[in-house]
Amino acid sequence: MHAGKRYSLYEFIRWTRRDIYRLTILAIIPTVLYHYFKLTFLSISWVPIALLGTAISFIIGFKNNASYSRLWEARQIYGGIINSSRAFGVMIRDFLASTNRKEDIAPIFYRHFAWLTALRFQLREPRVWENMTEASNVEYARLYHIAERTDKLEEVLTQYLTEEELLYILKKKNKATQIMALQSAHINKLVAEGTLSELHLQQLQGAITAFYDHQGRAERIKNFPYPRNFSSIATIMLNLFVVLVPYGLLNEFNKLGNGTLIEGYSIWLNIPFAILLTWVFDTLDTVGESSANPFEGSSNDVPITNISRTIEIDMRDMLDEENLPQVIAPENSILM
Questions:
Q1: Which pLDDT does position 185 carry in this prediction?
Q2: DSSP string covering 221-270
Q3: In the chain, at which residue ranges do the beta strands (DSSP E only) sit?
Q4: Using an 8 Å Cβ cutoff, are 299 and 334 in contact?
Q5: Which of 141, 233, 266, 295 could form a disulfide with 257 if both were Cys (CB 3.0 to 4.6 A apart)?
Q6: Rounded to an integer, what distance in angstroms lies between the CA atom of residue 87 and that of residue 315?
């Protein structure tokens, strides 16, 4: 996510410059045809276009609202993972320390780090409806590092799992689910041995259930896109509006210079004002689209890599480890 004060106008223009090129061409063509070739029939009444623009503003507003809701829910999910992880860590440490089984604490902690790792790798996997393959996003992504795109899951998991567990997990489709299943098996084994009581089991299984709930909610957002019917109609209507705006402003700007020094030349104001108007609508739609998939790896995503590292640092601190991992710092104001 962008961790700076705000996006600058330059960043927005750079990000959307390919759209600006397209909007410029769409504005120049009718203006040149109207002025030089006297094709005055190209002028369209502004009233129906303005009504269309009003409808589109509601559609884009609805889309941006829904996109923000998806983003905020994703952040709430990872906020829940932070809280549940801390509580789980404290329970494991205190329950096992009181029974003189401290040697079981670290494996459970490290297995939890493996779960966080597997989950973030799964959430960064691309989907066909996501936008990271678009040229503007590919270019902007060069400003920051997405660990899940360059690191190998197997190598990262080696830090946390035993060789036997790693070989078992790598064979599974949903690795995060199976890692948490190993946690449950370990805890139940400790109960069977009498190390933990049934009350301990109830509390710890409640924590594991909470982790599964968080994972399921995150997977729902990841695997269910913003509905394609709403997205498609918004795009179709916006493109129609963008094409029509320069035609609707032709007559207005042609009359603007009547009786003034710019008479005969005011028609050229159609180009910059049409570009500005259509760019505003187009950019608002782009902003909503960039927030609809909060785990894809864009600069507007939930920083799940950073959050996972924060949880790992907190839990390692509970183990009184001295060489804690470094906090992930923003790159060019982007936090992943």
A1: 97
A2: HHHSPSPHHHHHHHHHHHHHHHHHHHHHHHHHHHHHTTTSTTTTTGGGGH
A3: none
A4: yes
A5: 266
A6: 10
pLDDT in tens, 7-25: 889 988 999 999 999 999 9
Take residue 167 and report the two structure tokens written for it: 């070989």
How is residue 323 annotated by DSSP? S
Question: What is each CA distance from 105 to 1, 96, 108, 235, 320, in whole angstroms?
Answer: 33, 7, 5, 53, 12
CA proximity to 248, closest of 228, 226, 220, 277: 277
Residue 235 in tokens = 């795009």
Residue whose entry in the numeric block shows the structure tokens 């180009």: 271
This prediction has a pTM of: 0.93
Q: State both tokens at 322.
A: 């001295």
C-beta atoms surrounding 138 within 10 Å: 11
For residues 282 and 23, the answer to whether their CB atoms sit within 8 Å is yes
Tokens of 289: 């689209």
| Percent of the chain at pLDDT exceeding 70 | 100
DSSP for 34-55, written as a single string? HHHS--GGG---HHHHHHHHHH
Q: How far apart (Å, rounded) are the C-alpha atoms in residues 35 and 268?
A: 9
**Confidence band (pLDDT; 50, 70, 90) for 333?**
confident
Is residue 104 a contact partner of residue 190, using CB atoms and an 8 Å limit? yes
Contact 179, 153 (CB under 8 A): no
